[in-house]
Amino acid sequence: MRHNRIDPYTPDGGYYECLSCAYRESSEDRLTTCPACGADVRNLAVARE
């Protein structure tokens, strides 16, 4: 069986959440630290298992 459908998801940027204070921000640039408190952030668009 051949699948002709392609996943339409194409993010223009990431959506990040702070691991400490839960601040969220959308950014086209890759964020590594929270702009509110300076803690580490994670990209919410990345699948987690």
Structure description:
- Residues 5-49 form the DUF7129 domain.
- It holds the Pfam family DUF7129.
- This is Rubrerythrin-like domain-containing protein.
- With 49 residues, the protein is an all-beta fold.
- It has no helices and 3 strands.
- The chain has a 3-stranded antiparallel sheet with strand order 2-1-3, with no helix packed on it.
- A hairpin with a 5-residue loop joins strand 1 (14-18) and strand 2 (24-27).
- The radius of gyration is 14 Å and the shape is globular.
- The model has no long low-confidence stretch (mean pLDDT 81).
Present the secondary structure layout.
Blueprint: E1 14-18, E2 24-27, E3 41-43
Antiparallel strand pairs: 1-2, 1-3
Helix content: under 10%
Head-to-tail CA distance between termini: 28 Å
* Major sheet attributes: 3 strands, antiparallel
Taking pLDDT < 50 over at least 5 consecutive residues as the criterion, the unreliable ranges are: none
Class per helix and strand makeup: mainly beta
Question: What's the rounded overall pLDDT mean?
Answer: 81
Query: Can you count the helices?
Result: 0
N-to-C series of helices and strands? EEE
The whole-angstrom Rg is 14 Å
InterPro entries: DUF7129
Organism: Haloplanus litoreus
Protein name: Rubrerythrin-like domain-containing protein
Domain DUF7129: 5-49
